[in-house]
Amino acid sequence: MNDLSNYRKSYEKSELLESNIPEDPINLFNRWFHEVEEFGGDSEVNAMTVATIGLDGFPKSRVVLLKKFTEEGFIFYTNYNSEKGKAITANPNVCLSFFWHTMERQVIIKGIAKRTSEITSDSYFESRPDGSKLGAIVSNQSEVVPSRDYLEQNLKQLEKDFDSIVIPRPKHWGGFLVTPLEVEFWQGRPNRLHDRIRYSSQQDYSWKIDRLSP
């Protein structure tokens, strides 16, 4: 048995106070994101966990990369026919989370996911390296395959097929925009009295701000 009860750390790097936060969560997320990017040292600041409710009724989480965020919400890209894509299509209620351990910060976003426009998906797909484009085509994401060699051989064939040819975005691949309903910011503090600030979306498009007990 591995007893982890003595794994402890004192969180002392920052604070999160109502007197120093904006009225909406996107502005605070933007501030935190760039502070972590500049000072935190995290190699992939945009790595986030996406949690969905699967077709089997079980929740499932996986790490993907955030590719854009605006006042509308948070965008990532995936195969719509993947386990993740099918789960979101059946139940668009999702949760995104970021954990930036170097800055002792966490952000949890509860929201509704919908597909981005084809123009948005096309634009991002065109910006990708050719290898990533072909990878999106060759991979029937989440499906069982006989071997690694099977994937690599299919990729080599695609490289030949699309040699000197524009690689089109497959229709089953594109973006999801997650519109936030609640955004919680967690800042580690000493003695486990962590700061937790929650923004809740209101019908008039404003945000209700609450402090939560740690």
Automatic annotation (TrEMBL):
<dbReference type="InterPro" id="IPR000659">
    <property type="entry name" value="Pyridox_Oxase"/>
</dbReference>
<keyword id="KW-0560">Oxidoreductase</keyword>
<feature type="binding site">
    <location>
        <position position="132"/>
    </location>
    <ligand>
        <name>substrate</name>
    </ligand>
</feature>
<comment type="pathway">
    <text>Cofactor metabolism; pyridoxal 5'-phosphate salvage; pyridoxal 5'-phosphate from pyridoxine 5'-phosphate: step 1/1.</text>
</comment>
<feature type="binding site">
    <location>
        <position position="106"/>
    </location>
    <ligand>
        <name>FMN</name>
    </ligand>
</feature>
<feature type="binding site">
    <location>
        <position position="128"/>
    </location>
    <ligand>
        <name>substrate</name>
    </ligand>
</feature>
<feature type="binding site">
    <location>
        <position position="84"/>
    </location>
    <ligand>
        <name>FMN</name>
    </ligand>
</feature>
<comment type="function">
    <text>Catalyzes the oxidation of either pyridoxine 5'-phosphate (PNP) or pyridoxamine 5'-phosphate (PMP) into pyridoxal 5'-phosphate (PLP).</text>
</comment>
<dbReference type="InterPro" id="IPR012349">
    <property type="entry name" value="Split_barrel_FMN-bd"/>
</dbReference>
<feature type="binding site">
    <location>
        <position position="124"/>
    </location>
    <ligand>
        <name>substrate</name>
    </ligand>
</feature>
<feature type="binding site">
    <location>
        <position position="196"/>
    </location>
    <ligand>
        <name>FMN</name>
    </ligand>
</feature>
<dbReference type="GO" id="GO:0004733">
    <property type="term" value="F:pyridoxamine phosphate oxidase activity"/>
</dbReference>
<feature type="binding site">
    <location>
        <position position="67"/>
    </location>
    <ligand>
        <name>substrate</name>
    </ligand>
</feature>
<feature type="binding site">
    <location>
        <begin position="192"/>
        <end position="194"/>
    </location>
    <ligand>
        <name>substrate</name>
    </ligand>
</feature>
<comment type="subunit">
    <text>Homodimer.</text>
</comment>
<feature type="domain" description="Pyridoxine 5'-phosphate oxidase dimerisation C-terminal">
    <location>
        <begin position="173"/>
        <end position="214"/>
    </location>
</feature>
<dbReference type="InterPro" id="IPR019740">
    <property type="entry name" value="Pyridox_Oxase_CS"/>
</dbReference>
<keyword id="KW-0288">FMN</keyword>
<protein>
    <recommendedName>
        <fullName>Pyridoxine/pyridoxamine 5'-phosphate oxidase</fullName>
        <ecNumber>1.4.3.5</ecNumber>
    </recommendedName>
</protein>
<comment type="pathway">
    <text>Cofactor metabolism; pyridoxal 5'-phosphate salvage; pyridoxal 5'-phosphate from pyridoxamine 5'-phosphate: step 1/1.</text>
</comment>
<dbReference type="Pfam" id="PF10590">
    <property type="entry name" value="PNP_phzG_C"/>
</dbReference>
<dbReference type="Pfam" id="PF01243">
    <property type="entry name" value="PNPOx_N"/>
</dbReference>
<dbReference type="GO" id="GO:0010181">
    <property type="term" value="F:FMN binding"/>
</dbReference>
<keyword id="KW-0664">Pyridoxine biosynthesis</keyword>
<feature type="binding site">
    <location>
        <begin position="77"/>
        <end position="78"/>
    </location>
    <ligand>
        <name>FMN</name>
    </ligand>
</feature>
<comment type="similarity">
    <text>Belongs to the pyridoxamine 5'-phosphate oxidase family.</text>
</comment>
<feature type="binding site">
    <location>
        <begin position="8"/>
        <end position="11"/>
    </location>
    <ligand>
        <name>substrate</name>
    </ligand>
</feature>
<feature type="binding site">
    <location>
        <begin position="62"/>
        <end position="67"/>
    </location>
    <ligand>
        <name>FMN</name>
    </ligand>
</feature>
<keyword id="KW-0285">Flavoprotein</keyword>
<feature type="binding site">
    <location>
        <position position="186"/>
    </location>
    <ligand>
        <name>FMN</name>
    </ligand>
</feature>
<feature type="domain" description="Pyridoxamine 5'-phosphate oxidase N-terminal">
    <location>
        <begin position="44"/>
        <end position="158"/>
    </location>
</feature>
<feature type="binding site">
    <location>
        <begin position="141"/>
        <end position="142"/>
    </location>
    <ligand>
        <name>FMN</name>
    </ligand>
</feature>
<dbReference type="InterPro" id="IPR011576">
    <property type="entry name" value="Pyridox_Oxase_N"/>
</dbReference>
<dbReference type="GO" id="GO:0008615">
    <property type="term" value="P:pyridoxine biosynthetic process"/>
</dbReference>
<dbReference type="InterPro" id="IPR019576">
    <property type="entry name" value="Pyridoxamine_oxidase_dimer_C"/>
</dbReference>
